[in-house]
């Protein structure tokens, strides 16, 4: 069997990369693997850290802040012959045997496998599984909140049923911090969509894979810690996340449905803004701008 290609995209990741690399041997236990890192023109010591701690890794310098999907594509292009791939954020910390459990769960219709994700220092896991966006789900989240709406499959995108995280569970898409993707799925789907600079690229990829017959499935025996980002608190990043969510919906639906979805998302962000959430105020303002849903440049 060809080695697993471990794909990592970095951008000013010097502070989190050592922990990722330290956990990698245990996380990849039982597999033949190679590490390929695409660096999006980091201004810190990311490249030096990588070359010191993982001198055998393949480094791809994109020469610009190209975005997450573009980094994945660049790393895949440099990976050589490989079997499945493991696509990782550098702020992931795989636990013992995580990758092998993910890789072993591929096949029988499963093209993408994701682990149970924990926050650093917390015993509870993330709700990482998602249903495809719909107008009704967007309205449900706007009116009663995403966690409460998630209890009802027709009303919420977030899968919050605890039982779904105790067994292998298929979903429309999942958080993309750590994904194992089969070689067959990769070949069928082709490159990641680089028009999504950040956020919604994993959603688009999972939905595209599903449309081609490759399911996304949680493997709860595979565990990892995700240190997380600041999209929940950064107005700039939350705005980018929100706009890309609506852009992706528009790619898959007609103009009338997209206008309704955009209105439902605007209602949600406006209601949160009235409660004092600055990130939601920024997102709601952006949704009103003409041309807001054109290809969004990176931060």
Low-confidence stretches: none
Helices, by number, come to: 11
Mean pLDDT: 93
Please write the string of helix (H) and strand (E) elements.
Answer: EHEHEHEEHEEHHEEEHHEHHH
Give me the Rg, rounded. Answer: 19 Å
Shape: globular
Beta strand %? 15-25%
Based on helices, strands and strand pairing, what is the structural class? alpha/beta
What's the β-strand tally?
A: 11
The major β-sheet equals: 9 strands, mixed
Terminal CA distance: 40 Å
Helix content: 25-40%
Commentary on this structure:
The chain has helices spanning 17-27, 46-53, 68-77, 98-104, 135-144, 146-149, 183-189, 201-211, 235-252, 255-274, 278-287; strands at residues 4-10, 33-39, 58-61, 85-88, 92-94, 110-119, 129-130, 169-171, 173-174, 178-181, 215-226. The protein is built from eleven helices and eleven strands. Helix 5 packs parallel to helix 10, helix 9 (235-252) packs antiparallel against helix 10 and helix 10 runs antiparallel to helix 11. It has 299 residues and is α/β, with parallel strands linked by helices. Helix 2 links the parallel strand 2 and strand 3. The strands form two sheets. Strands 1, 2, 3, 4, 5, 6, 8, 10 and 11 form a nine-stranded mixed sheet that branches. Strands 7-9 form a two-stranded antiparallel ribbon. The longest helix is centred in the last third of the chain and has 20 residues, at 255-274. The radius of gyration is 19 Å and the shape is globular. The mean pLDDT is 93.
């Amino acid at each position: 069997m060809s080695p697993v290609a471990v794909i990592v995209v970095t951008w000013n990741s010097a502070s989190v990369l050592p922990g990722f690399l330290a956990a990698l041997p245990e996380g990849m236990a039982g597999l033949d693997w190679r590490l390929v890192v695409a660096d999006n023109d980091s201004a810190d010591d990311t490249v030096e850290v990588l070359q010191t701690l993982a001198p055998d890794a393949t480094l791809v310098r994109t020469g610009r802040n190209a975005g997450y999907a573009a980094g994945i594509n660049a790393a895949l292009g440099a990976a050589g012959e490989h079997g499945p791939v493991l696509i990782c954020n550098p702020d992931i910390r795989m636990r013992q045997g995580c990758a092998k459990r993910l890789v072993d769960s591929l096949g029988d219709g499963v093209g993408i496998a994701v682990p149970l994700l924990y926050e650093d220092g917390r015993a509870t896991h993330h709700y990482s599984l998602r249903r495809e966006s719909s107008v009704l789900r967007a309205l449900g989240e706007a009116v009663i909140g995403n966690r409460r709406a998630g209890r009802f499959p027709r009303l919420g995108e977030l899968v919050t049923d605890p039982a779904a995280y105790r067994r292998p569970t298929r979903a429309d898409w999942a958080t993309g911090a750590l994904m194992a993707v089969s070689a067959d799925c990769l070949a069928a789907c082709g490159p990641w969509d680089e028009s999504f600079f950040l956020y919604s690229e994993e959603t688009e990829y999972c939905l595209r894979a599903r449309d081609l017959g490759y399911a996304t499935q949680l493997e709860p025996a595979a565990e990892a810690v995700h240190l997380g980002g600041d999209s929940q608190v950064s107005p700039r990043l939350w705005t980018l996340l929100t706009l890309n969510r609506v852009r992706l919906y528009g790619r898959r639906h007609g103009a009338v449905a997209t206008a309704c979805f955009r209105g439902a998302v605007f209602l949600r962000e406006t209601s949160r803004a009235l409660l004092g959430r600055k990130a939601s105020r920024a997102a709601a303002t952006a949704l009103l701008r003409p041309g807001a849903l054109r290809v969004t440049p990176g931060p």
